[in-house]
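<derive_structure_tokens>
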Amino acid sequence: MSAAPIKLTILGSGTSMGVPSLACHCRVCTSKDPHDNRLRPSLLLSRNGQNVVIDTTPDSANKLSASTSIASTPSSNPRSRDHILGFDDIRPFNIRQKFRAPGLQQRETFRIIRRAFAYVFDDHPHAKHGPQR
């Protein structure tokens, strides 16, 4: 019995700011060619209904239909957050599926995620819609 193949989907392959970048007027950022539009780097690995998202950028989260695991790569720039800023956008999957998604990060990357999204790690995470009263 052989394992099902892993499907690799490139969710984004641009720079950390995406292409085109705001306020940039270079020939690539102003190009009308759709091949020059590239979202921030992120990958999706899928097999047998299981998904692993590698780097949750703000661009990638809206391309997902379900998520089971998250892997975050360490940033080469300690101040950079572009590879984790979509983390909050995938919470609805976990809330609806009623489980905590396993994650794989280096200790420093997890520390950054934990600090940036402390409310996600509360004992009672819940979805909030609309203005809070």
